Amino acid sequence: xxxxxxxxxxxxxxxxxxxxxxxxxxxxxxxxxxxxxxxxxxxxxxxxxxxxxxxxxxxxxxxxxxxxxxxxxxxxx
Length: 77
Hints:
By secondary structure, this protein is an alpha+beta fold. Helices cover 42% and strands 13% of the residues.
């Protein structure tokens, strides 16, 4: 959960100019205790102007949806 609590400091100027992307995985059950935290992170990303997408995946989709993940990464590249 450090990604939700620890600020990110980008010190490389070229890296700081790159667009950021947040993908909210919505495939978890509605009673998932982490849902409110992830939704707050998603809201912050949207407010900051990041690329944003919601996908009906569980936490680690690269295992069962590798082609969809690759397509999404290429879309944002």
